[in-house]
Amino acid sequence: MPELPEVQAVAERLRAAAPWARITGFGQFRPSTMNGGVHAPGRRIESIDRRGKNLILRLSGGWFARVHLKMTGDLRVLPDARLRPQTVRAWFSLDDGRAVVLDDPRALGRISLHPEHEEPELFQDLGPEPFSPEFTPAALYASSRRTARPAKIWLMDQSTVAGLGNIYAAEALFEAGIDPRRPAARLSRRRVERLHAAILRVLETALASVRAAYERPGAFSEGEFYPVAVYGREGQPCRRCGAAVRRIPQGGRSTYYCPKCQK
User: Fold this and answer.
1) Per residue in 43-55, pLDDT tens?
2) CA 32 → CA 37, 90, 113, 136, distances in Å?
3) Fewer CB atoms inside 10 A, N or C side of the chain?
4) Do residues 173 and 238 share a domain?
5) One domain, residues 83 and 118
6) Same domain membership, residue 251 and residue 169
7) Greatest CA separation for the chain
């Protein structure tokens, strides 16, 4: 699933291409993909934002489109609305002949349109953005005191920090030297401070990598250019100590870690 860096890269690419374009129509190939598309025609795309793993297309007249890319989605601008690939599931036609399309091979992505007054309630369960003033070592430590869950599961909860997912949670825990199975409430303040710094470092590196990925034509791959230390490297030597990287199931996902470096 695209995480914060991938979604941010999509937002930045759209920001350069779509604002102030007027939507003239919409379409979808299955009813579940888009909800409320009837409210889009006639409105201009005024800005593109991101909240956690959600894209927000702010429209004129006090409306916005929320887009969640799910596992394989991508939101991009096509130069010709008529030339839609078979994997496009929904689209907004623009007044200059282009189209903003949800390209999604697995057809899991969703678009919904809302009046702007619904935004606070829609995102009320999301935690702070990693690069926001609200995401401090003290706030992360306070969050860790309120749960008995393992550190990895706690980090992936979007109420802890918005946008962090499986890949970068595993990488941040490795950077901080924390065993993903360790209960979050048992982490010392110093270790949580180290984890906070690791999250920011990992996301900064990931943002640079996915921005580079979008300089190429074609589809993108989650974490494509990120120099992973543990994710997806089961059985391979740890880049730091040489021990074999392990994989365990956690919360229905695979967790990768180094048994020697992470305690």
Assistant:
1) 999 999 999 999 9
2) 11, 10, 13, 38
3) C
4) yes
5) yes
6) yes
7) 59
Q: Which domain holds residue 165?
A: 137-257
Model pTM score = 0.91
Number of domains in the chain: 2
Query: What is the identity of the amino acid at 7?
Result: V
Query: At 243, which CATH number?
Result: 1.10.8.50
∠ CA 133-139-142, rounded to 5° = 175
As a dihedral over the C-alpha atoms of residue 245, residue 152, residue 223, residue 161, rounded to 10 degrees, the angle is -160
| 147 and 108 part of one domain | no
Which tens digit of pLDDT belongs to each residue from 65-77?
999 999 889 999 9
Q: Which residues are catalytic?
A: 2-3, 53, 253
3-state secondary structure labels for all residues of the chain: CCCHHHHHHHHHHHHHHCCCCEEEEEEECCCCCEECHHHCCCCEEEEEEEECCEEEEEECCCEEEEEECCCCCEEEEECCCCCCCCCEEEEEEECCCCEEEEECCCCCCEEEEEEHHHHHHHCCCCCCCCCCCCCCHHHHHHHHCCCCCEHHHHHHCCCCCCCCCHHHHHHHHHHHCCCCCCEHHHCCHHHHHHHHHHHHHHHHHHHHHHHHHCCCCCCCCCCCCCCCCCCCCCCCECCCCCCECEEEEECCEEEEECCCCCC
Domain co-membership, 72 together with 103: yes
